[in-house]
Amino acid sequence: MNVSKLIFLYSLRIVRREWRRFVLPLASLTITSVVLILILLLTGSSNQLLSDQARELQGGDVVLESNSPIPGSVFFADANVRPDRVSEQLSFSGTLQSESATAPFTIEVVDKEYPLYGTIRLKSGVYEGVIPGEVLLDELGLKSLGVLVGDTVMFGGVSLRVANEIVTEPTSLFGGFRFLPKVFMSQSSFQEAQIDTRLLRAEYTYAAKVASLTSGMVGSLRQVQKTYPEVDVDVAGLDQQGLQFGLEAVSDFLVFAVLVTATLAAVNVYASILYLITIERKSLAILLALGLTKKKLVYVLGTALAYVVVLANGIGVFTGLAIFTGVQEFVLKNYVIVLPDPSLFLYGSISIVLIFLIAIMSFIPAIRRSLELNPRQILIGGNVEVMEKRSYRSFTLITVSTLIPLIFLSSFLLKSATQGILVIMGIAIFYIIVAFAFAFALRKVYQKRAQAPFLIRSIISQKYADGLFGIVSFASLFIALTALCTLSLIQVSLEKFLVDNLSETVPSTYVLDVQPSQKDLLIEKYPDIQLFSNVRARIISIDATRIQDELKSESSDVSRELGREFNLTARDSLL
After folding, report:
1. 61-104: per-residue pLDDT in tens?
2. Secondary structure (H, E, C), 438-491
């Protein structure tokens, strides 16, 4: 029989005969593979989706935001950037009135170029801009004012016709909860209302479409921003905010779960191979005595582990792909969002290679210690003696060495080598602390086992006899259950927050305009309501400075914020 055939046959015989020893590494590697490929596909697909829609979500390639009017053309000229198209918007909170009701709104004043990317979905027809003298309301706005499409509403003394109902806008990936309804109007309608913008707490937006935005242009924009400290510059795809920032936080949390799972797999593979070598040491010693070199012996054990790794990779990749496909269909059905297909070859290859690296980095230190002995030492039990002397030091050393591929994995997923090292080191330290705490407690219990019943003594003795394998098993199980419980609690908490009544999870104090004639009837219907006086007023002077006069003269010594109306209230506590 040639050497290659001997290696394959004997390694297969080891797997078939000692299959119980391979259950733990197979399960660990399979779970790691499933979780790894699934998280890679989900984060890759989500990032691709947001990357494709970053311009729509943000409103342009470059968006300038400020609480005061923005000299957008001058800003881009100073940066030597020529936008293809620009759009100016003004957003503030205001009041609209119908024949039957008055309601607060988030008012969006837009120009003809809005939106630069994407489109506004209307309930009927196609959006072609906001026509002067007309407004677009969302469903909540129509209900708040008690109007229908075609009716008339009032804003600042100007009558405006409700032209259509807004379903979604491009700056929202999908419809969500809003505290205030939204209305879109043209700039000419806003000017006709003759609202003094100095009295508004408004947000000005200057969005630009730059099809060929280079890194040099971005650097120039950042440099010019220093001369405009009141202007915030957001670049699509670079400045994460809102949904993008939230997705990044969720992705990092899922990455942490992947790394914990991978760490458990690495240590379990090491412990299982070490235990297998201990059990099979006499059979291995006979092979060495018959002339099989130590190098060929490594091939035998490595091939046996390779069978397990290949099986785990196959099950893990196909299971992960199936789950990802199910998630795509679920998202499409419930949220009408098509998650793009990420590179299956890229992420599948990354997952397979990392699983092999985890197995190899766990296998090498496990086999190295047995190969330090000759057949005679193995047969007389020398391997056990060496293990007893070096078990705890080796446990620490091996745990750290098996984490090397995980550091690369962590750095890749977190996009930072520093964060990758810190996260893995934190997991490793926690793992070692749990292992040493269990080993210390087990030793103390073992020393006092004589006082326990026979059944308990037997269990304690068996766990103590398991040695390093038992310590690793306990630490792995403890950390796995801890991570699982933590993930479950967070998932339940988020689900409860999103599903439960919003009145229980968001601020539920509102300011109502109650006239004296309405007070008695309101208290009769709601005896627990707390009413307090509320008066709107402007600051006339501070010390000897006439605030309103200084604002009219456009003095730079007085903040525009002091020109708005303030609420004077008799509340006994703050909101």
Report:
1. 888 888 888 888 888 888 888 888 999 999 888 888 888 888 88
2. HHHHHHHHHHCHHHCCHHHHHHHHHHHHHCHHHHHHHHHHHHHHHHHHHHHHHH
- 517, pLDDT greater than 60: yes
Q: Please give the mean pLDDT across all residues of the chain.
A: 76
Q: Give 285's DSSP letter.
A: H
Is the CB of residue 216 less than 8 Å from the CB of residue 223? no
Q: How many helices (H) and strands (E) does the chain have?
A: 18, 14
Structural contact between residues 137 and 120, judged by C-beta atoms closer than 8 angstroms: no
Lowest mean pLDDT segment, chosen from 25-39, 136-150, 286-300, 331-345:
286-300
Q: Biggest alpha carbon distance in the chain?
A: 106
β-bridge mates for residue 97, sequence order = 102, 154
With H, G, I as helix, E, B as strand and everything else as coil, classify residue 24.
helix
Residue type, 384: V
Nearest to 57 by CA among 293, 244, 260: 244
Give the H or E element holding residue 288: helix 281-289
CB 184 within 8 A of CB 131: no
With residue 97 as reference, give the H or E element that holds it: strand 85-97
Q: What is the pLDDT of residue 364?
A: 74
